Each structure stands twice: as C-alpha cells, then as structure tokens.
Amino acid sequence: MVEWRRLSSVNCLMKYCAAIDLGASSGRIAIGAIDQGKLTITEVHRFKHEARQFEDRGLRWEWAKIVDEVKTGLAQAQKIGEIVSIGIDTWGVDYGLIDAHGELIEDPYCYRDARTDGVMKEIADSVGAEWIYQKTGVQFTFFNTAYQLYAARDSAALSQAERFLMLPDLLNYVFCGSKSTDLTDASTTQLLNAQTREWDFELIDRLGIPRHIFPPIHKPGAVLGRINGHDNLDGISVVAVGSHDTASAVAGIPLKPTKDSAYISSGTWSLVGLEIDSPVADKKSLSYNITNEAGVADRIRFIKNVSGMWLLEESLRHWKSQGIELTAGDLVKAAAALPRKQIINTNDPRFTKPGAMPDRITEYCREIGQDAPVTPPEFARCIFDSLADAYAQSIRELEDSSGITVREINIVGGGSSNELLNQLTADATGLTVIAGPVEATVMGNLIIQMMTAGWVGSLEEGRSLIAASSVRKEFKPKLSRSK
What we know:
Blueprint: E1 3-4, E2 15-22, E3 26-35, E4 38-48, E5 52-54, E6 58-60, H1 63-78, E7 82-89, E8 95-99, H2 119-136, H3 145-151, H4 156-160, E9 161-166, H5 167-176, E10 181-182, H6 183-186, H7 201-206, E11 217-218, E12 223-226, E13 237-239, H8 245-251, E14 261-266, E15 269-276, H9 283-287, E16 291-294, E17 300-307, H10 310-321, H11 328-335, H12 357-367, H13 376-402, E18 408-412, H14 419-429, E19 432-435, H15 440-453, H16 459-468, E20 473-475
Parallel strand pairs: 1-4, 2-7, 7-13, 10-11, 14-18, 18-19
Antiparallel strand pairs: 2-3, 3-4, 5-6, 8-9, 12-13, 14-15, 15-17, 16-17, 19-20
Helix pairs in contact: 8-15, 10-13, 11-13, 13-14, 15-16
C-alpha cells in the first residue's frame, strides 16, 4: 500500500494538501505530500457517523457533527505543517438546501429514506425511462437525487430554498461560501444532460422541480475560493476534486491507458466499471442499467452498481444487537474454510434498507428453494460468493455494452483488503485481480489538488506516482474464463 507516515516522522517544513473523504458510515482527513518521488500520506483524523431515523423527520444525516469532525481534522492537520489546499469528496446523490439568507434549511436526508419508495417507477412510467436515459445516461436507482427532489417538490423546505447543493459542495460552501456543484457529483443526480454536461432543464421542468435552485457547475481542479470565517483555517485554498467519492477513487487507480482495465471500488457499495471517453446511453446499456457518470479529466465512469460490504456491515450490526461481537476479519478467515453453497441476488430491493440483514438473506434463500445459512461464517460466505458472481455478471454486461474486452480488474477501497473476496472474484471472472490501494479515494483526491498546485502534470502522471508509491497484490484465477 501507499506509504502512510506516523505523525512523529512527518517533516514539518513540507507543504501538504488535505483530503476530506466522507463515506456513508465514516469519514477521514488525511494530508499528502510528494517526498523523494513518492506520494506520502498521513491520516490525521477518522470518525464514525451514521444517519439517524426520526419519527417525524425521516432518515437524516447529522450535519453539524460532520462539520465539527471535519474542522477537528483540519485543525489536527495544521499542527503537522502548512496546508496549501483542501479537497472534499463524499458519497453521491444526497444534498442540502440553502435559503435566501444563506442558512441550511434542514439536516440533509439520507438516500435510504423511505420518501422515495415507488417514485422511480412513477417517473419512469409517466416521463419515459428510455427518454430519461437517453438524455442523462444515468442508472435507475430508487435513491437518485431526481427522485429525492421530486418527492420534496411540495415541501416547505424546497419552497424556501434558494439553492440546492450536493453534500461535498455544501461543505465547500461552509468553508468558502462557494455555491456551485462539481460535475462528477452532478452526474449522479439523473438531472444532468450526458452530452452537454449541463443541467437538463427540459427534464427538470417535467418533474416539477424549480429551476432557480440549480447552481452553476464546475469541474475538478477548479479553485473555489479560500476558507473564510473559521479562525486559524482561514486563507487555505478550497479546490474542487472528484467530489463524488467514486470519481476520486477512480482517479486514484493506476489504470492502464489501453482502456481494458476494469475497476471495482469496493466499500459499502461496490461500483464495477470502465473508464471510457464518451457516454454510452443506448437501449442495451439501459437494459443493463449501466450508469454514465462524469469522471476526472473529462473521462466517463461507465459503471454498474452492486450492493457491496453493506450486506456484511448490516449483518454485523444485527449480530451485535443480539450480543454477538464479530469483526469482518474474523468472518473472512472463517468463511474461507467453507464451501460455496448459497447464492443471493445482492441487488434485491429487500437488501437496500437498514435492518436485520441475516433474516432477509434467510427469507430470500427460502423463497428460491435454497437451504439458508445458519452461522455467521456461513452468511459471510454466502455474501462473498454472491458478490463475486455479481461482479462477474457486471463485467460481462459492461463488455457487451462498451465493446471492450476486459483484461484485468483493479479492486480498490476497503473491500480490496478482503483476500477471500478478491480470489473469489478472480475465479468468477476468470481474470487477474489486482488489489489496492485501499485508500484510492484519498489518493485520487490528493492527486487532483496536486495537479492544481502544479506539483503533478496530469492524471496519468498522478496515477504513475500512486503506482510507484503503492504495494498491490495480484490474485490469479484458478478457473479459466468462460463466455
């Protein structure tokens, strides 16, 4: 993996970029520099957060806590050396509403909130799924921003809104007052035109969402301003990165320039994709529900969404509530000794919401005539085998839609440290899997800032720097690939 430095060994005379990387269950602040031709990273703060269910307000993010934790991390970073810029990435689709006085109207909803239940089908039926896909190139997933805003169109909050900002840009606004949205995150909304890369107001009008709330769009690498009104942080440059965390993750993968390297960003969700030059929004890619999202340096992230480590995370949470304390590492080790047995459709809607995941897996298995897992290791093995099969199916669909024959798979993110899943993926796809770096999102975030600072000349140069600074592990398939 990339060289992670201990705080005591950091050179205080160096200049650093700070990456703020927020996932849907945890956040981290890390600083990066280039030292003797290597990318060095120091994690200075990590915290847990989760959405809270309110009886009268739905499922919400604790926004004030997130802001306070980020400020705590940046204060820690300043103790180490000069911070020349910050860059913020978060999960996609969620947003906040700002009123005419510049105040946040309400805590942002979590994308898993039930207010969008049934909305996707309603819109697809009334507006036309094929028409929407041809315009936006974005997958149909129940939590898309389009459906969230549609569900809120008659709410008091939306009627008061002067701007809506995606969450990374809501944080940018907190720090420097910028009211614009990064292209990579805007492309997750299903409201951006895939060809023009501007808001598609024809679609927006059909959905009854007010035009005036939509901010201007900026690209990764733009300087949005300087931190202002936050004491000792004031004056630090705020740089747009791939603000959708998957965009930063893909930027942090040392992909081959031949375009035949697939990637899996493996975390709470698994994003299986290719990096291509232009969107593919035809009937075939629609039938596979493939999304075309903007990437860094004008690339397209051609992606299939697979429900990832969420299945295991929710299972662990359930077992803990039952007094059974387990770790993912324990289950990986125990599951490796078990045979392949049960397979579930990881994208079945029942697995998308919080709750007793083992009970849902049991229910699914019984419905399709399988014996259900019994022990936690058996549930884990079921999840890992099912994810590997889902990855293999996704690769086949991406190949069929793009006309590209995939030669290897790069797995990054927290899931890349799961050696059992890496090997199962190699076996299921018949392709070599290259695992790591784990912190590709942070690294991609930093590389964009370093390009803006003039420390790195291009995305390719940045990826070469990451490759030279990382230790990555290969997993060879034990089975030949079948078509």
